[in-house]
C-alpha cells in the first residue's frame, strides 16, 4: 500500500462520556470536533464519528469463521505487530471482556495475522489486527 487514504465511519452510541473515555483514554484516540450529540475521534489516522442514537444500536450478530463467532458488523484498525500486542495487554489489564481472545490466525499460512474482538461501551464490535508481514494483508 503506497498511499494512505483515511476513511470516515459514523456509528451509533448510547452515551457521549462513556464513549469519550473508552476511545480516548483506553484506545488512545485524539478527540476532534464534538457536540452533546456526537464526537469525532482520530482512530489510528481515520475519522470516526460517534453519534448518540441508542435506538440504532443492535446486538452484534455473529457468523462462524474458523470455528469462532465473529460479529458480522464490526470495524477496527490494522496495527503494527508490537503495537497490537501492547494494546492486547492493555485491554487485558483493564479487564476488557473479549468476544474473541487475542490469538494468531492462519499461523504459518498465507495471511497469518494477530486478531482480537471486543465491544465498546455501546456494544459496537471492534476488531484489531496485525500482520508481521504487511504484504500478507490482501494475500490469497
UniProtKB/TrEMBL annotation:
What is the scientific name of the source organism? Anditalea andensis
Residues covered by the VOC domain: 5-131
PANTHER family tied to this protein: PTHR39434, VOC DOMAIN-CONTAINING PROTEIN
Gene3D superfamilies for the chain: 2,3-Dihydroxybiphenyl 1,2-Dioxygenase, domain 1 (3.10.180.10)
Under the heading Pfam families, the entry gives: Glyoxalase (PF00903)
What the entry lists under InterPro entries is as follows: Glyas_Bleomycin-R_OHBP_Dase, Glyas_Fos-R_dOase_dom, VOC_core
Recorded protein name is Glyoxalase
Amino acid at each position: 500500500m503506497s498511499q494512505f487514504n483515511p476513511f470516515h465511519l459514523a456509528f451509533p452510541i448510547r452515551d457521549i462520556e462513556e464513549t469519550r473515555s473508552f476511545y480516548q483514554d483506553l484506545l488512545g484516540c485524539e478527540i476532534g470536533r464534538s457536540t452533546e450529540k456526537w464526537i469525532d475521534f482520530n482512530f489510528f489516522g481515520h475519522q470516526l464519528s460517534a453519534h448518540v442514537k441508542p435506538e440504532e444500536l443492535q446486538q452484534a450478530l455473529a457468523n462462524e469463521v474458523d470455528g469462532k463467532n465473529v460479529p458480522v458488523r464490526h470495524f477496527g484498525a490494522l496495527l503494527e505487530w508490537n503495537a497490537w500486542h501492547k494494546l492486547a495487554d492493555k485491554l487485558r489489564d483493564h479487564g476488557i471482556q473479549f468476544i474473541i481472545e487475542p490469538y494468531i490466525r492462519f499461523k504459518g499460512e498465507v495471511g497469518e495475522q494477530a486478531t482480537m474482538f471486543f465491544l465498546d461501551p455501546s456494544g459496537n464490535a471492534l476488531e484489531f489486527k496485525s500482520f508481521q508481514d504487511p504484504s500478507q494483508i490482501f494475500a490469497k
